[in-house]
């Protein structure tokens, strides 16, 4: 496999790399030394070298979500991005094996759209409160309650829930997906806050499942307005999984990709970023003039992924994602339909 821009970056630390050299636009080009102390890099260097050797041996890549810790994000990830970018990657990647440094629903999505590839998750317990809070049977019950209404499911769901849905969405295209259906009413699962945010932007009536993200639901509007009062009126950017009173305080609401883009387009001196903590660490080096203020909530699921278990995953080719064929086929229709709508932010 040809070395990607990121492989070279890891090897040389100080090399620069143009966007055209990397085959995916969501990649964050940065220098590891800008974000990680040199001693920390030196301490993990043998592990990083071993992971990079195994990647070549296995014809594998590491695809990392924006919430991974900076060592994973900057030292071993070939591709970084939000859920939508990681889904697209599974279609485009020139590799036999993809290690999904993220949570299980992301690995399942990759498997759904690319059943030929070996998709690995380093820890099967890396779940998600949204995905774990709804089953296929729950969706069938909602469909029986609202006959004929299409179901839009956030990608933060199991393959079984996707299979019961007409289309999936991510935080990077939820509004466009809902409006793409051309109907007056939809069932939206499982994130009530993303659903409410979409409902506030469209005339389509959105019937909600009352799920929530255990990380973003902990932020409160009061906390954000207190910060704003104490720090001066700095811009606030927030993920749409936050409750409505938090989003009411925000100047921009979008996916993790959208928030990174907002910072790079606007180059604020200071910004309050309301999402999982690791995001700010990861993008700090790409925005050296921006100070990130953030109430810090960590996702315990995302934090199960470590350099150690990525190495073990590549060594032992575990844990492989398997989805029953009939479920995968129905889920693929919903995910493919979403990919055709594309990105909105
Ligand atoms: P993004 O698709 O915006 O990266 O969000 C995924 C997620 O799980 C946020 O909590
Ligand atoms: Fe799920 Fe929330 Fe963690 Fe994202 S941050 S993976 S939505 S629990």
Brief descriptors of the model:
Rossmann fold; alpha/beta; 43% helix; 345 residues; 4-stranded parallel beta sheet; binds 1,3-dihydroxyacetonephosphate; 3 domains; disordered N terminus; 16 helices; binds iron/sulfur cluster
Please render the helix and strand layout as text.
Layout: H1 5-12, H2 32-35, H3 38-58, E1 60-65, H4 70-76, E2 79-81, H5 83-92, E3 97-101, H6 104-113, E4 118-120, H7 136-145, E5 151-154, H8 159-163, E6 167-169, H9 174-180, E7 185-189, H10 192-199, E8 205-208, H11 221-231, E9 236-238, H12 244-247, E10 252-253, H13 256-266, E11 270-274, H14 278-283, E12 291-293, H15 307-316, H16 325-341
Parallel strand pairs: 1-2, 1-3, 3-4, 5-6, 5-7, 7-8, 9-10, 9-11, 11-12
Helix pairs in contact: 3-15, 5-6, 6-16
Bound molecules: 1,3-dihydroxyacetonephosphate and iron/sulfur cluster.
CATH superfamily of the largest domain: NadA-like
CATH topology of the largest domain: Rossmann fold
Query: Which cofactor or ligand species appear?
Result: 1,3-dihydroxyacetonephosphate, iron/sulfur cluster
Radius of gyration: 20 Å
Order of helices and strands: HHHEHEHEHEHEHEHEHEHEHEHEHEHH
Main sheet?
4 strands, parallel
Please state the average pLDDT score: 90
Please indicate the percent range of residues in DSSP E strands (runs of 2 or more).
5-15%
DSSP summary: helix tally: 16
Label the overall shape. globular
Q: Which stretches are low in confidence, meaning pLDDT under 50 for 5 or more residues running?
A: 1-30
**Span of the ends, CA to CA:** 31 Å
CATH class of the largest domain: Alpha Beta
Query: In total, how many beta strands?
Result: 12
**What is the architecture of the largest domain at the second tier of CATH?**
3-Layer(aba) Sandwich
The total tally of domains equals 3
Q: Structural class given helices, strands, pairing?
A: alpha/beta
Strand order of the largest sheet: 2-1-3-4
